[in-house]
Amino acid sequence: MMQNQTETIAELLLAWFDQNARILPWREDASPYRVWISEIMLQQTRVEAVKPYFERFIRTFPTVRMLAEAEEEYLLKMWEGLGYYNRARNLQKSAQIIVRDHCEEIPSDQDTLLKLPGIGSYTAGAVASIAYQKPVPAVDGNVMRVITRILEEDGNILDKKIHRKIEVFVTKMMPHDRPRDFNQALMELGATVCVPNGAPKCERCPLQKLCRVCEHANWDIIPFKEKKKPRKIEKKTLLIIQNENGIVLRKRPDSGLLAGMYEFPMLEGPASEEDVLDFTRQIGFLPVQIRPLENSKHIFTHLEWQMEAYLVRIEDPAFSGEKERLGSYLLLEKNETERKYPIPSAFKAYTKYLKMKLGNELFPVPEQEKT
Q1: Can you give the residue ranges of every domain in the chain?
Q2: For 236, phi and psi rounded to 5 degrees?
Q3: More confident residue, 260 or 166
Q4: What is the pLDDT of residues 71-105, one digit of tens each?
Q5: Cis peptide leading into residue 223 (ω within 30°)
Q6: Quick one: CATH architecture of 232-362?
Q7: CA 96 to CA 52: how far, in whole Å?
């Protein structure tokens, strides 16, 4: 594409963005800390899902130092329901480095940002360009889709060479006086017009006449991505073991899937009522009642849990509200559990039996803070 064409793309795109940009909380105040938090939250998560989490997170941890010094369980509780919990842990690790090595200032240099945990080329480019107006590319999935369709690039978008080609093209197009708006405009176009699922809304696209895929109507094959391997399916039997005041939970290991989160006891594979009663006795409780619950499933990136479940009522032991350790299983006060211990949304289908709320239901954003 000739230089004048890339300049035309930038002009048309920015004019469109000036009229169509969504109002988002991290755009209204594009301070480096807010941009960084929002970009980490937006990794593999929809904008509408992120909004209330962002508002609550910023309200709870308004400075990088407060994030660096937060207790991990409380941090994860504020992240509860957003998923991909290593993002929260990497945020805290990065915050600690920023406090220690950068005088509590988010770095503006792309190479320095790349050295922080959880930050890749896209996030580094987004923070540098949006927070600091640096003319560097920020190429996410939305941008890849827009540019591969403009160029009619039919290579595998998971290929690093193709990704680098798109970054070079975006850099050539970028106006140095508005890098923040340009990068956001590309993302916005991909999110709202050149959409990820279904046909693009070409009639609304400012780049329609410059887009080769629009000309040839082959949006269904571009961008091209090799098919992923089928998800692994694991069958589980989940147990809601409780008495009047307490609920039995287990803290997951500090590494691996859902690391450090709290879960209901689970058995591998299907289990009979007798299996469940035997297990309940083995971990130190006397079951007095059992009933089956509905099945549910939860999909992770490369894994699917298919869960059966039972509600088990146990005999009331002496219970003071303190957690009682029985091997790796904890008997926790229900009210304390809801407020303190982070439980993954993988189990959301069953928290209703405890009248327990998770994430946004538990910590709603006040109306005056919503945008």
Answers
A1: 3-216, 232-362
A2: -130, 155
A3: 166
A4: 999 999 999 888 889 999 999 999 999 999 999 99
A5: yes
A6: Alpha-Beta Complex (3.90)
A7: 25
327: pLDDT confidence band, cut at 50, 70 and 90? Answer: low
Q: How far is CA 48 from CA 34, 38, 41, 175, 191, in A?
A: 16, 12, 11, 29, 12
> Are the C-beta atoms of residues 93 and 85 closer than 8 Å to each other?
no
Residue 366 has pLDDT above 60, yes or no: no
- Taking the model in full, what pTM does it have? 0.84
* Architecture of the structural domain at 3-216: Orthogonal Bundle (1.10)
Identify which has the larger pLDDT, 285 or 359. Answer: 285
* Nearest to 360, CA basis, from 62, 75, 55, 120: 55
DSSP code of residue 129: I
User: What does residue 198 show for φ and ψ, rounded to 5 degrees?
Assistant: 90, -175
Q: What angle do CA 361, 367, 369 make, to 5 degrees?
A: 100
b/e string for 82-110 if b means 16 or more Cβ within 10 A?
bbbbebbbbbbebbbebbeeeeeebbeeb
Is 331 in a helix, a strand, or coil?
A: strand
Q: Which of 277, 204, 244 has the alpha carbon at shortest distance from 354? A: 244
Average pLDDT, the chain: 89
Q: How far apart are CA 266 and CA 207, in angstroms?
A: 52
> Please, what sign has the CA dihedral across residues 142, 47, 295, 277?
positive
pLDDT tens readout for residues 97-138: 999 999 999 999 999 999 999 999 999 999 999 999 999 999
- The token pair that represents 85 in the structure block: 């919990």
Catalytic residue among 7, 11, 28, 39: 39
Strands 262-263 and 266-268: unpaired
The percent of residues in the chain predicted with pLDDT above 70, rounded, is: 91
**Does residue 333 carry a catalytic annotation?**
no
Residue written as token pair 């920020």: 138
Cβ atoms of 97 and 116 within 8 Å: the answer is yes
Q: Looking at residue 370, what is its pLDDT?
A: 42
Question: What H or E segment, with its residue span, contains residue 248?
Answer: strand 246-251
Percent of residues, the chain, with pLDDT higher than 90: 71
Beta bridge partners of 333: 246
Q: Which residue has the tokens 């920015």?
A: 14
